[in-house]
Design brief:
The chain is of the alpha+beta class. It is about 30% helix and about 35% strand. It contains 4 helices and 12 strands, in the order αβββββαββαβββββα. Strands 2, 4, 6, 7, 9, 10 and 12 form a 7-stranded mixed beta sheet that branches. The chain starts with a helix and ends with a helix.
């Protein structure tokens, strides 16, 4: 049994290690889930973490949401933190301001070496505030186009591999769905199902041999 559990532990550890290696840099929307009443204000922080030896030298992002549920009355964005982290005289602009789609571009003018010395490992990209206008649910995340909607640039103008964790905003009668179990947990269950029966079979055979 100890061997079976050890194998399962090693498999899960390897899977977790592979996952963290693939997507060490994470963009999070906080809170990940919230519920407000119609007429209340909605606040969401978007941050980047895990840069490590990398830098964020530029980005081209489109923040998407359901404009029929939130943001029709008022919507605001504050990217002061990102502007500060992009160094001296960065280029920062909103390229899209349509309902349901907010485009933000940023680019540093300092060298990579200067950026590496001064930029934090984790920082806020933007802070958003919306009005909650109607019953319903709105996802709030980045667009899927890797070139124009979720493009993160690092050292030597190379694209960064970034994992994006969006948010769910429920208004009035709307309800955010409970997130499904993580994939590594499901794999762990599968490994358990595959390992335990074989262990039990061997144990029964051993017991039968001893009786005979």
């Amino acid at each position: 049994m100890k061997k079976a559990l050890a194998c399962l532990g090693f498999a899960l550890a390897a899977l977790l290690g592979a996952s963290s290696a693939v997507a060490a840099i994470v963009v999070k929307f906080t809170p990940a889930s919230q519920h407000v009443n119609v007429g209340d204000s909605v606040f969401v922080d978007v941050s980047i973490s895990g840069l490590g030896d990398e830098i964020l030298s530029a980005f081209d992002l489109n923040f998407l949401y359901d404009g029929s549920v939130i943001g029709n009355s008022t919507r605001m964005i504050d990217a002061t933190s990102a502007q500060f982290q992009l160094g001296t005289n960065p280029i920062l602009a909103l390229d899209t301001t349509s309902l349901g789609n907010w485009g933000l571009q940023g680019s540093a003018t300092d060298s990579d070496a200067v950026m590496a010395l001064n930029q934090a490992n984790s920082f806020l990209l933007a802070q958003f505030s919306f009005s909650s206008d109607a019953d319903g649910v709105s996802q709030f995340t980045l667009g899927g186009d890797m070139d124009f909607e979720r493009n993160f640039v690092g050292l030597d103008a190379k694209t960064l591999n970034v994992s994006v964790e969006g948010a769910c905003i429920a208004v009035g009668t709307g309800q955010c769905q409970v997130p499904e179990p993580a994939s590594f947990f499901l794999v762990g269950l599968a490994l358990t199902g595959a390992t335990v029966p074989s262990f039990l079979t061997r144990r029964r055979r051993t017991a039968a041999g001893l009786k005979s």
